[in-house]
Amino acid sequence: MSGPAEILVAGHISLDLRPELRNGLAALHPGRLVPVGPMFATCGGAVFNTGVALHRLGIRTRLAGKLGQDMFGSVALKLIAEFGEDLADSIIVAADGRTSYSIILDSMVEDRMILHDPGANATFALDDVPLHKLEGVKLLHFGYPPLLRRFYQDGGAQMAALFKKAHSSGVATSLDMALVEPDTEAGLVDWRLYLERVLPEVDVFLPSFEEIFFMLRRERYLEFRRQNLRAVDALIDGCFLGELADELLSYGAAVVGIKLGERGLYVRTASVPGKLSFLAKATGIDAEAWAGRELLAPCYVVPINGTTGAGDATIAGFLAGLLHGESAEEAAISAVAAGACSVSGKDAVSAIPAWSELKRMMQTMERNAGSLTWPGWRMEPGENVWRGPFCRGSF
């Protein structure tokens, strides 16, 4: 890293193990010998996926997470070092802990299954985030509190305290979530109350649709699951997204980005420029131009080699756009472009190019703009982003 870090990415980190499934998940039955292909190992979690993607995009990045002093931890550190020798300088290696790992069963044609051990992530806490290294940092991004026991068991108190300390140092804040399984300890948390406590200290909130659907509309989500309707994205429409975004903005977030998978990225911003002033001062964006936006950036069309970590790469593209002073429209498109590069690679980050190369690729990659029939939404001729009815200046 040449010069001080511009962004600190903290939170969940793990070793991801992905066997090549030759016959799909349906072949997995007790008592059988199931032929598989090679095992592919990479790091995972928000710290690696988002942090290394930002690094590859040319943003000076520091990673902060916790590994165990074990074989998996050694492999994880080696994998991180392949992308940058000093990237792991702030990673804690706990002598008495074990490294978190996930076994990802993904056939590419069915919903994936993930077997996950939280490992050292269960003890990662506020004091493990290197706040003494914030000099020069413009943005603190934190990922996956639902998978970090210390950051959810107190209802968000540590999370809010961390972001408040960042703000007191002049550092903007960004938060990503993870999908919560209802029958786990994290599933018992009142996530609406959690967000009410934390979002006043969050400048950019970037959950997925399913994550925020569960957190804000728990009973509706559970009823949907009880009916065995697994494709929750069937419920995505402009009205529902606007309703969710309204609530999140009312809790205090300045920018809300909801990841919609293959449909792209929905972005909604506070209507008052003053609400964006802290973010603007830290990152260099134009608060006036960013205020009052409602956008949908459709995905690019690329060959898909894997979707694990694509949402994290999308976040990296969005945050890189912020740090380059892009408009909300430009940052949203940069986000889905980074996500497209991610799914085209062998892992979440190896196909992420440098920023200048990403901009060049965006000139030739095919967009999946399609036809959006949501009431009040439109795309101007020559543009690459849909504008919603809440978008200032749309009508």
UniProtKB/TrEMBL annotation:
Residue ranges occupied by any Carbohydrate kinase PfkB domain in the UniProt entry: 40-353
Keywords attached to this entry: Kinase, Transferase
UniProt protein name: Carbohydrate kinase family protein
Pfam families: PfkB
GO cellular component terms, A-Z: cytosol
GO MF annotation terms: kinase activity
Organism: Paenibacillus thalictri
SUPFAM superfamilies noted in UniProt: Ribokinase-like
